[in-house]
Prior knowledge:
Number of helices: 8
CATH class of the largest domain: Mainly Alpha
Structural class: mainly alpha
Strand order of the largest sheet: 1-3-2
Strand content: 5-15%
Largest sheet: 3 strands, antiparallel
Radius of gyration: 20 Å
Distance between the termini: 44 Å
Helix content: 40-55%
Shape: elongated
CATH architecture of the largest domain: Orthogonal Bundle
Amino acid sequence: MSRTPLPYSAGDISALARSLRAQLADRTEPPGHVEWLNMLAKAVGCRNFQHFRVQTRIQTTERVTAQEPPGAAVDAPPPVDPVRVLKVARCFDAAGALLRWPPKRSERDLCLWVLWSRIVAGRTMSEGEVNDVLRGAHRFGDHVLLRRELCDAGLLDRTRDGRVYRRVERRPPPEALAMIRRLKVASADERASS
């Protein structure tokens, strides 16, 4: 499985060294791979490696957007691949519910955007309310996976204690917009025929 490289930098190398020393102080054995990732993430102010990965993804997206010259490619969004949209649309039933979790990351991302579109914008929700939305939006019985994936993708934000959730407002990419529109039309047609 290929891995996406994550850039790592510390604002102050001395603070980084102090943080790592404090985290290693009472250990008798060296930490494992995942423990190292979590320790390095904590040393730069993140809660854990998952939090670091999401923050890095958001910062990279913001950096790329900020580097685009004014007026560059604003009029020409990337083309939508209709074959890919159709392939991912087959993961949903006629009513627009997700039937299965796709194996490819790029396909899962499109599914996440569809789920994101079903969460009410600008509203704070409890974990139970988010779970209810996700339970109604899929058929394979793992709303926890979907909630976690939405948070990891930066599409859903939650408080540290996990009690309050809010949809993160972002513009979906063109293929995601095509998926959302396609599924809205399909579910409207299904309701009209019943």
